[in-house]
Fold these 2 entries.
Entry 1:
Amino acid sequence: MTEISLSDDLAERIEGRIDGTEFDGVDEYAEFVLGEVLARVEHDAAESREETASREQVQNRLQSLGYLEE
Amino acid sequence: MATDPAPNLVFVTVDSLRADHCGYVGAGTGPADDLTPTIDRLADDGVAFTQAVAPGPRTPSSVPVFFTGEFMSDDPDWTMADWQGRQGRIGRHMARFTHLSERLQRRGYETATFTANPWTTRESNFHLGFDDFNEVSADSDDVQSSYLSDSTLFKLADAGMEALPVDPVGWADKKEWFSQWTGYFELLQERLADLSEPFFLWAFVLDSHQPYITPRRFREECAAWEMYYSILRYWHGETADEAIPPHARKMIAATYRDAVRSVDAFVDAVREATAPYDPVTVFCSDHGEALGEHGNFGHEQTLYEENLRVPCFVHGTDTSATVREQLPLRGLPELLVELTEPGAFAPRRHTRPFAVSQIENNRVTAVRTTRWKLVTREDGARLYDLQADPDETDDVQTDYPAVASALADLRDRHEATQAEKGATETATADLVTAERGSL
């Protein structure tokens, strides 16, 4: 684990946002947000999805296993 | 002083396996007796979790969550029929978070999988983090469709249908029903031999997913005609929205038990094949299965115990225990990462007094303890006393207002957290898009 420092102002603002949530503290929130940004920069979700099966094949497979019914 | 090397990890996930159909959880309750001798033995020898809880009642609401440790963000446009939207949502979720296979890959593990479920594919980004990704399906480039099953009848039918210029009976769509571990297990063994250590192998099998088509050698209760009749009766009941008569219900339950026997045989085969590599094995189901409870069969968008209670054990560490505290499967990434350090595994570190589960569109939420469950739908909340009312029929909010209030607070905190996480996702997406636009 690596420690980073946040300004008091930033830490206060984060504390205000995490009140009433499941975030355990400022560091957990900061790690989450940084992870979010990195993931977005490292992966473009729309571009990284491979399409190796035809749409009809995928739909038929999901249909046959009951995944498209309420 | 030299440290012990990281152990090989084998993660077995079984689709739609009920906890109460595994003897180490449901022994003495009837259906579980003698169904799962291998699972029971490994659970007894290792760490057996008797209160493992799935984060969702179906694969798309469960597996992405226990692979990432995060619930999926809301999608206001979600509909059941929009499979492309649903698949895209899972794909964005898997790309957004560093998930289980990626975490292990970054720790130096060679990662491989054989996965038979249509929601855990390349299209939904489940290949990320796997050095060797094998999708088991009728149209997979990884595994020929002849490996879906080792049944002679299936192979003959498949060869015959493939030779026809047209597909008069829709065989291409129905081949998935016959996906059985016995068909592709030899491929799994071949891949296993090629893996460098330490390796992480994830096997996700569909054998206890409906329709419950089970190889003859594992069927102890149903003949082939009974198995196929129960499938037809099940599908007729679903499509005609009719109640399934008692004799058919009994037959469906019996075919399910035979499917569970096949799953136990798979676990035994994996145990034997991986024994030379001395792995740590984690076993779980992704969700349960209804067999007539609350008027449901299969896995609907409901959060009853039959949908959420799953078996889970860890075998091959130096720890043996029966853990009766609640284990949310959402914590599996942390559990598996802990297993990479010999001697570090502390089973109860991963238990929680409260577990949250949601249906796929996040519009129904359950907050569960080992005794209580508060289920919140769009039309209100219901509190169930799981000990006094295991069938979850009576809402006891007015009898236990303090319990209902406490669980509602937890639900609200969960929703506030998800809202905040969704806001950061949107803000980040806008930021990156704007940055790219300015380049």
Entry 2:
Amino acid sequence: MARLFLASTAILALLGGCSQAPAPAARFGGTLEAVRMRGYVRCGASGNTVGFSTPDDKGYWGGLDVDTCRAIAAAVLGDKDKVRFVPLNGQQRLTALQTGEIDVLPRATTWTLARDANGINFTVPNFFDYTGFMVRKASGAVRAQDLKGASVCIQTGSVTEVTFANVSRRYALNLHPVVFDTTQASRQAFFSGRCDALITDASALASVKVTMTTNPDDYRIFPADDVITALTPAVRHGDDRWFDIVKASIDAMLMGEQLGLTRQNIDEQRSSGNPDIRSFVGKEPGVGAALGLHEDWAYQIIRQVGNYGELYEGNVGSASKLKIPRGLNRLQRDGGIMVPIPFN
Amino acid sequence: MSRSSRRYFARSFVLQLVALAAVIALVIWLATNAVHNLASRGIATGFDFLDRAARFPISESLLPYTPSDSFAWALAVGLGNTILLSMLVAILSTAFGVLLAQARRSHNPLASGLTAIFVESVRNTPLIVQLLFFYSALIFSLPGPHAALNPAPGVFLTNRGLYLPWPMFDHGRWLLSSPITGHFNFEGGLVLSPEFVAIVVGLTLYSTSYAAEIIRSGIEAVPLGQWEAARALGLPERRLFRLVIMPQALRVIVPPMTSQYINIVKNSTLALVVGYPDISFVTATTINQTGQAIEGVAILVLIFLVINFAASAVLNAFNRRLASRVR
């Protein structure tokens, strides 16, 4: 019902969009001005994916996707806390972005060409993931081919549905899908024993494994196929400046790591003689003005939020409960596929 | 027609004309806005997507389906499930409604009391809560496939569903297909999934509680004199009910039952909370895969209008036939 309600709301928003006189400028471009006037950035969030997007017991939002949003707020408004999070399910998120309910969607959304061509722009991947199965170890399954005839719980509104169908067909597994409209419902059904496996992004499975089980060692996660998915914050079509700002904010976190800038050392490094660091922190002006931001925008990101490595380890890596190995998400320099774009 | 009433008529005619023009103008304005906004946001429009491969799975269906079928067929499959579900619930809730109406009218205090408790508790709690309750009860309380209950040969009850032997047409002849144990699940035979059972049972109980009250009120609307007259003629109870009471009660019963049947069709969209793929579930998935919300919702609205117009047309015709037989 919630989904249909949102669809109807979205339609009403589309229908009525032209009626609010100042809105068109804000909606079709001018996101930066709209955000400045409003005083905060509105981000799509998940709300229940530990490590990526969830409020803590005091209601303070945290996670890799949340920190990506905070980085944008630090760059644009100079304060990482000038953000509001709109919890959205898989069904709602794209419509919410297209209709202007949120400014940016950093919510574990897989970059696909069909989505990209249909009203939204993907910026820079902030997490490379794969689709995984989680099974009980007692089932004996260690790879997708072992799941012949199994029941698999899925939540709708995701690329996972298509991956599921592809895997079932590719290995002739005759999998039985059990499809739900919320992540909670599909997880609950898996833990009740309704399904032999739960399929979704492996990162989300890692979070489910440590947060929803009494004994995480009873469960095993393995890849569903050999396709890497790029979870990428997205903006809507029609505002090149905002598109650039979001890309630059994510890039600044990667470049910060590349240059060895951290929350701790950024203030002393600010007076460094290294020309790359000088243009990063805004001592050599130019990049900030070109983006329409203060020259210290990248400095603010590192000082308030941290570099990508700090974000990763703190939210999903070794310093977190999830302990997802850095793997592909290392910088290219360190053997991963994260590529920082130079500032000059 | 007097002058004042003619003037009143003319004035109301003009007012209605203005109202109609305003509504048409509003619709045109909204449609133009929508087209403009969709274009400026680069969102595709039109129904071309219906021919493309759907690629998402549908967990169970009356009609055959694979993810390589088109979006149009996926929607048809969802519609098939909605119709199956609605028909089944309409038939079951009518049958149980008749039984419960009789029970509540009976002089046995146990029968009438229990029925009253059932009707009031089911009618006064939200349907969605009942559905989630039934579904959780099924998947959490039934054993897994390796500890399946086996109440009769070939029949297995698990948290994956109820497995039954079922005739299947194969290689030109009918065979009895029995469920056999696989590594993860039983294979073969007929499966009634927990999702299907939860939505059928939940919706049936909910609709039964309304149907029972409608039928009871219809029966009680027949004047006592009719019962006494029929008894005076010496009609046995069963024929008395069929020949004298029911034809009169039906005139009271059919109009509210028509809207009750329409409610069943509309309430069937709650199937998605227990994971049964009805038309609204498939439409929502289609919207998500294609991003074309306006087209998806338009299709859904059209489908429900057609189903419910057809249902009420048939029942209204039946009602007219009943009403015309005044003796």
